[in-house]
Write a structure and sequence with these properties.
The protein is 45% helix and 14% strand. It is an alpha/beta fold and 422 residues long.
Length: 422
C-alpha cells in the first residue's frame, strides 16, 4: 500500500497532543511498510512549514521517515504583530484563518500532481489545516484525519472567553469553521475521528459521510508504571502544551477556583503546571505553591512523582492523550467531563469526574488523604491504559487505509464503502 500523508507545520519535536498521535501512528505504519521491502509498500510523509528555515528539522525528519518530503513555504509564523497583520489580510477569505494560514500555492500544486501521478493508492489529510491544499476533485481515495471537531472547539472557546476582542475573534472563527468543516467532511472519501462523541457531532453536520473511530493511544514503553507516590507534601500535576487556549483556561480556572480549597487543607501542597512555551497568562500563575515548568525534557519525570493528576478542562475537542499517559504510569486522576470526553473509561473506577470547583477539590482531597482509595484508582488506570498501546491503535488505522485502497481497486463507489468500528 502506497500512502501519501500530508502534515501542515512541523511534526518534530513531538510536543503536542496532535503531534503525538500523528507521530506514533506514522512511525508504526512506516515500520510495517519498510518490512515489506517492496516499492508497492511505502509511506511518504509530506511536511510543509513556514517561519524560519530549519535545516535541522528537515534532516531529523528525513532520518526518522526515509521517504519524507519537506517543503519550506516561508509563510508567516503568525506570531505577534505579524500574526495580527496576517489574520487581517486573510479575513476576507471564506475559509477560517486556522485553515487559510496553512494554505500555500506551492503545496497545492505539489499535492495535486502527486495525487494524479499514480504513485499512491491512498492519501491522508492530517487535521483540517492542510485540507484546502487538496484539489476539489480527489482522484484517489483521500482520508481526513480529524483529531478534533474544530467548529465545536472554537464555539467552546468563544463561550468561555471573557476578553471582548478575543471573544469576537473566536466567535467569527467558529462561524466560518462550522461552514467550512461541513463542506470538507462531504468532500473527503472517508473520515477518521478519535472518539464516538466526535463521530456523532460530525454525522450531525453530514449524515452521509463515512466515519471510523480510531481511539487515542499511549506509548506504554515510554510511560511505564511508576511506584505509588510517596511525595510529601502532595504534588498535584497538570501536563499539556501551555500555548494552547484550552490548557491556559484550564490552569487559570484551577488556580482561581479549585486550588485555594486544596491549600486550605494542605498548605504545603504544590501544583505543577508542566508543558511547553507557557503564555504570560500562565507564567503569572507562578507562586510559592504553583510551579510553572515551561518546556521539559520529559513529562514522565513529573508524572512519576505526582500524587494526583488533574485535567480541569472546560473547553477542547477530540481526546486528551494526557489522561492515558498518566494512567499508563499508574496515576490517580481527577478530570472534568470535557477533559475526559471521548475516552473509554468508567467513572469512579478508572478516574473521578467533577464538573464544578467544589466537587473537583473534594475529589482531589479524597485521593490525597486516602492512600488505599488512591491505590485502587492507580491500579485500575494501569489496567485500562494497557488496552490502548499505539501498536494496537496504528493497526486499526492501517485497516481503514487498506479497506479504502481495496475498495478503490474493486471499483466500489465511496458511498458504499463500509466504516470500520462504525
Amino acid at each position: 500500500m502506497r500512502v501519501l500523508w500530508v502534515k501542515a507545520g512541523k511534526l518534530l519535536p513531538v510536543d503536542t497532543g496532535g503531534k503525538i498521535r500523528s507521530y506514533n501512528i506514522l512511525r508504526r505504519l512506516t515500520r510495517e511498510n519498510e518490512k515489506e521491502k517492496d516499492k508497492d509498500h511505502r509511506l511518504t510523509l509530506l511536511s510543509y512549514y513556514g517561519g524560519r528555515r530549519d535545516p535541522d528539522y528537515e534532516k531529523a525528519l528525513s532520518q526518522q521517515f526515509p521517504h519524507a518530503q519537506v517543503v519550506y513555504t516561508a509563510a508567516s509564523d503568525s506570531e505577534g504583530l505579524r500574526g495580527v497583520v496576517d489574520y487581517l489580510a486573510k479575513l476576507p477569505r471564506l475559509a477560517p484563518y486556522s485553515v487559510s494560514k496553512f494554505t500555500h500555492s506551492t503545496v497545492r500544486k505539489l499535492i495535486a500532481n502527486q495525487l494524479a501521478s499514480g504513485q499512491f493508492d491512498v492519501a491522508v489529510c492530517d487535521f483540517l489545516a492542510p485540507s484546502l491544499n487538496f484539489p476539489e476533485n480527489l482522484p484517489i481515495p483521500c482520508l481526513l484525519f480529524q483529531h478534533n471537531v474544530e467548529s465545536a472547539l472554537w464555539r467552546r472557546m468563544a463561550t468561555t472567553e471573557s476578553h471582548p476582542l478575543r471573544k469576537l475573534a473566536y466567535t467569527l472563527e467558529a462561524t466560518r469553521m462550522s461552514h467550512y468543516e461541513r463542506r470538507t467532511l462531504a468532500r473527503f472519501h472517508h473520515i477518521v475521528a478519535v472518539s464516538e462523541n466526535d463521530r456523532q457531532q460530525m454525522l450531525q453536520m453530514d449524515p452521509s459521510c463515512e466515519i471510523t473511530v480510531n481511539p487515542t493511544g499511549v506509548d506504554t514503553q515510554q510511560f511505564q508504571v511508576a511506584p505509588p507516590s510517596s511525595a510529601s507534601p502532595p504534588r498535584i500535576v497538570f501536563t499539556g502544551s501551555m500555548d494552547w487556549e484550552p490548557n491556559i483556561d484550564a490552569v487559570e480556572y484551577f488556580c482561581a477556583q479549585i486550588w485555594p480549597h486544596i491549600l486550605a487543607k494542605f498548605p504545603d501542597a504544590v501544583f505543577q503546571i508542566v508543558g511547553r512555551t507557557p503564555f504570560p497568562r500562565v507564567q503569572r500563575l507562578a507562586s510559592r505553591s504553583v510551579v510553572v515548568t515551561g518546556t521539559v525534557p520529559s513529562v514522565t519525570d513529573y508524572l512519576r512523582d505526582a500524587t494526583v493528576v488533574v485535567v480541569p478542562l472546560r473547553i477542547g475537542g477530540g481526546t486528551r492523550l494526557k489522561i492515558y499517559e498518566a494512567m499508563a504510569m499508574g496515576k490517580a486522576l481527577v478530570s472534568t467531563s470535557i477533559g475526559a470526553e471521548g475516552l473509554t473509561f468508567e467513572n469512579d473506577r478508572d478516574l473521578l469526574l467533577a464538573d464544578d470547583a467544589n466537587s473537583f477539590a473534594d475529589a482531589i482531597l479524597l485521593l490525597v488523604r486516602d492512600a488505599q482509595v488512591r491505590r485502587r484508582f492507580e491500579q485500575a488506570a494501569v489496567h485500562l491504559a494497557a488496552k490502548f498501546d499505539w501498536s494496537v491503535v496504528a493497526g486499526q488505522f492501517a485497516e481503514v487505509l487498506q479497506r479504502m485502497a481495496a475498495d478503490s481497486i474493486a471499483g466500489i463507489p465511496s458511498s458504499k464503502r463500509l466504516a470500520i468500528n462504525r
